[in-house]
Design a protein that fits this description.
alpha+beta, Aminopeptidase, seven-stranded mixed β-sheet, 4 helices, 30% helix, 30% strand, Acyl_CoA_acyltransferase
Length: 167
Amino acid sequence: MNFRKATYQDVDEIWEILQFAIQSRKNDGSEQWQNGYPNQASITEDLETGSAYVIEDEHGILAYGAAIFDVEPAYNDIQKGEWLTNGDYVVIHRVAAAERSKGMGIATRFFNEVEALAKSKNIFSVKVDTNFDNLAMLRIMDKLGYQYCGEVFVGGGVRKAFEKVLS
């Protein structure tokens, strides 16, 4: 498997993966991603900012997500808590796994790859938000040692905010 920056040639495959993830959220009873976001414009913006990453194998893309090495404005106003750190951080958004990757732990691998990339850039904090009812992502946060820090307002709704300090 290979972790790399996504390219414009990947857009169709990424969009297919996101559509599967959107439907999966709906099937799980989650309200997350049920309002037209993420969409193809989200992918384009991730590509334009250099934030789009994929994990692929010899058959194609297994996972997609954005690793944003910049300030997330919504994270400036955390409620009912506080961040663990105040320095530079990477934000992970829009993580989605292909249907064929089910059971492979590919989302966990995506997080591990972004953490390694952050450390290579001397950034030792990863911040993430997710919906209260996204049980799959909440399990990943717990499994990988992310700490609940409070709530942030993102995309028109309140989200659970997590941070992991890397060593």
